[in-house]
Amino acid sequence: MNLQSMTGFARAVAEHDGTSIAWEVKSVNGKSVEVRLRLPQGLERLEPAVRQTVQKRFSRGNFQATLTVGRAAGQQAQPVVNEAFLRDLAELAKRLQEQFGAAPATADGLLSLRGVLDIPETNETEEARAALDGAILSALEVALGGLEQARQGEGAALRLLLSGHIDAIEALTLRAEADPSREPAVIRERIAEQVRLLVDASANLDASRLHMEAAFLATKADIREEIDRLKTHVASGRVLLAGGGAIGRKLDFLAQEFNRESNTLCSKSNAATVTAIGLELKAVVDQFREQVQNLE
User: Fold this and answer.
1) Dist CA 234 CA 258 (whole Å)
2) Which of 67, 189, 199, 296 has its CA 20 to 30 A from that of 123?
3) CB-based burial label for 215 (10 Å; 0-12, 13-18, 19+)
């Protein structure tokens, strides 16, 4: 299955019986499917169907869908002005201007007041209304198809980036595993040197006891477990990317696991070379997690 990012834009236009229809849809990152709609007055009835259509197609993202409908001249209802009410408002505005210095009223301001201008609904039959609704929803499907393609195009690019990050994590893990500081002979020599320094500093210290304590600390500092877990997470990441689909949440959890292991590797390291590898690993994991945030 294809990967999808959560960002994209698409536009679709259609015409139905002299009425022009245009949808613009866009999406950005989101934890779930959230839909904001801008529908023309009189078409609010379509809101449930539009939301359901978006939710069926996508699993994550914040969506904004804007519908523009232009009716032919013969289909447009003529506006009705309540002239008596308008006249009363105009006189009131004039008195306020003369008595209190209020700004003069404008025609568009007066017409925008509730009750002054009314645009009656056109006399549509149920059949005509249903046909228009169907045409609008069909155009929406086309727009959402375009949006899905845009999201998949970015998802393909993200797949390559994430795959490269996983390769880098694997390479760093193998470098840490093969680092000379982890050789038993090197570890023994380091422990012996530390014990010699402590014994030389104080004759009262028990050398055998120090050897036991140093060996215990060396065991705690071993990063074998972290390396094994990192290898397992690398394999899991490749399986997820190969399978595709809505894997953003799973990859985000995997990024957290990568981050946890890289932190532990740094904290347990007793060699500068391994610490450097751990820090480099953390940088790659941060990039991986940042990219994962864009996936559906």
Assistant:
1) 9
2) 67
3) middle
